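User: We ran a pulldown and think these components assemble together. Before we commit to crystallization trials, I'd like a predicted model of the whole complex to look at. Sequences follow.
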Amino acid sequence: MEEPVMKDTQWLARELKAHGVSRNDFLKFCGSMAAMLSLPEWAAAKLPATLAAAAKPTVVWLEFQDCAGNSESFLRAWRPTVAEIILDAVSVNYHETIMAAAGTQATAALDQTVAKHSGEYLAIVEGAVPTGAGGAYCTIGGKAALEIAREVCGHAAATIAVGTCASFGGLPAALPNPTSALSISEAVPAAANVINLSACPANADNITALLVYYMTMKRWPPLDDHRRPVFAYGQLIHDACERRAHFDNGQYVQAWGDEGHRLGYCLYQMGCKGPVTSHNCPIVKWNEGTNWPVECGHPCVGCAEPQFWDKMSPFYKHLTGVPGFGMAANIDKVGIGAAAVVTAAFVTQGIVQKVRSRKEDNATTQSHEEEKRP
Amino acid sequence: MSAENVARAPVAGEAVRVSVYVWDIWVRVIHWVVFFCFIILAITGSYISHPFILVARNAYEPFLMGTVRVVHFYTALVFDLAVFARIVLMFVGSPYARWDQFIPVTRRRWNGALESLKFYVFLRRRPPEAIGHDALDGLIFAVRFLIDLLIIATGFTLYSKITSYNSPLAIFQGLIPFFGGLQGARWLHHILMWVAILFILQHIIRVIVLSTVKHDGTVESMLSGYRYVTKEDLAEEARGR
Ligand code: SF4
Ligand code: SF4
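Assistant: Here's a predicted model for the assembly, 615 residues in total across the polymer chains.
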């Protein structure tokens, strides 16, 4: 395989030394990454050496209709300082929130990267791309988001959509989608190697693992139907949840703070969307691996799935409502009502027709027998 | 066929009816398998969507939801096979089980459906006669088959993600985006259960009504296979076929 343009293979070692990261910490980091990526033992053993010798990828980070939550998540990457170095020191040539440059200087940095590293850099995109009103809903330096996305993602080696907004449209694209927001793969169908890291926000550990995979293997990991890496989205939350035993046993939380809630029962009846959501939250967890929503007593709202604002709400209910009866309508109550109406209608029709046909029967019999009678 | 036809004492003012063997053993067996499977599926499915029996705190591993789910899955397999067998019968079964009983292709069937509809909006006193499926009834069942197929497809889609990765059923994961994600499939699966219940209700009530208005033994026919048909209709049917 041809080496990428950046031939500096000592950068990571230098950075690690400068940050005072011990060899031991580096090995620990590699071990946790190998576990996350489910690498076999022989590959895991090769990871530290390969990573240390890996070329430094060039990255530009674009923000469109977003809340900067993914940047927050990214800046809080932990797994000692190694992840920090991987993330901070990958040449982030352009990142509106964290770059020192501003205005024309910043745009110049972006243009330069696109021109100089065309076809080599990675574009990380946060937020949806609005297309309504000629793109007026989101412009940077006078350029519409769509135009920027086409230019930057169109020339990138790969585009990583971080967060549900960039992956699937997310909140901006939720009904009624006032700005006609699109996900990055919808907005720039020509973009090569789009990888969606959905969730609100994307888990920094998954971003790190994806970059480590790319830097060491020089290709992208296997993806699912929604173009999400299988290592992070291959399993249902429900299948890795620590409350699963309570689910299978029929023990459920019925109300916030009830006995079941205090005992850590399953949150299924509180609207948990774990059974329909694919993500690795129960395994990787959040906030330095401290905890994740279900563990601390809140149902999963399914943030990693397409259109979760529309499909998964109401968040504390099992199912959405019934069209014509409202989003919060109870599907079973509507069903029972419909069954009552159908039963009443057909029973009434039957009784009326039966009475009419009996009259007719009697009438014909009578007229047969007493034809002469007036 | 006419050798089996037995005349029956006419009800006052009615035409003479003869018995005809309309539902063969396969049709009847499949009918009841589908019916009982559906009841089990509706009850277990309702429990899965809304667990109405809760297990006490210190019960020792009752595995209630787990068991209900397994019952649901295996019953669903029997249900699916029965529905597919019925679809096969549409092409290889008796004339009264054929696909053209469901989808009207002749003018006569279309007229029959229209006449039947008139009975339900009080424009006719008596429902039109039919030997096998009444034309309107057949049409309703055609829709019911589509709904069953959708229920089956959404069910397999939901199952595809929890089955083992090397199971052949994992292929249904391809349908997940089509139904709007697993949550979409789950919603559709649930609401279609209610639609199917509406079909069953109207079916039961209408069968009883037709049976009592026409005195043609429709209710018993799903057990015995025989139905009482007017002689004129039998003759007409023989001509029309
Ligand atoms: S809490 Fe949610 S994810 Fe966990 S077992 Fe219950 S339903 Fe499944
Ligand atoms: S538990 Fe569910 S809602 Fe929470 S972050 Fe994970 S996927 Fe999103």
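Chain A has two domains: 56-232, 237-366. That may be worth checking against your pulldown data before setting up trials.

User: Thanks, that helps.
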